[in-house]
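Support reply, case 0932

Customer input (verbatim):
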Amino acid sequence: MRTSFFAPENLTAETLKKDVRILADDTMKVARQQVVDPTLEVARRASAYARDAVQETRERLSQQVSQAERYASAQYDQTARWVLAHPLKAVGVAFAVGLVITGLLGQASKR
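Our regenerated output:
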């Protein structure tokens, strides 16, 4: 800190202007060191943490989607085999499901 506030022997407007400039510069340096730089460092760490969390979530979601795809494919194959093995039962089940859905929609439209 280089300030020379209120030195009685050279108290002039120029001296005051110079002292105010020096005080402003010193204040900016301290603010940068004490506030701005630590805040930027915390923001950088938070950004890195968020990127890591997003990447981890993306990987976990990708694994779950792959598992869901395998499960859906296995269920489709099992259903297709059952329909091929029991074609008349499949038609009967489809007809019954159609009746139930029609009944539910008819009840819903009456309300």
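We compared this against your earlier run and they match. Two observations from our side: The two ends are 82 Å apart (CA to CA). Residues 13-85 form the longest helix (73 residues). Please reopen the case if you see a mismatch on your end.
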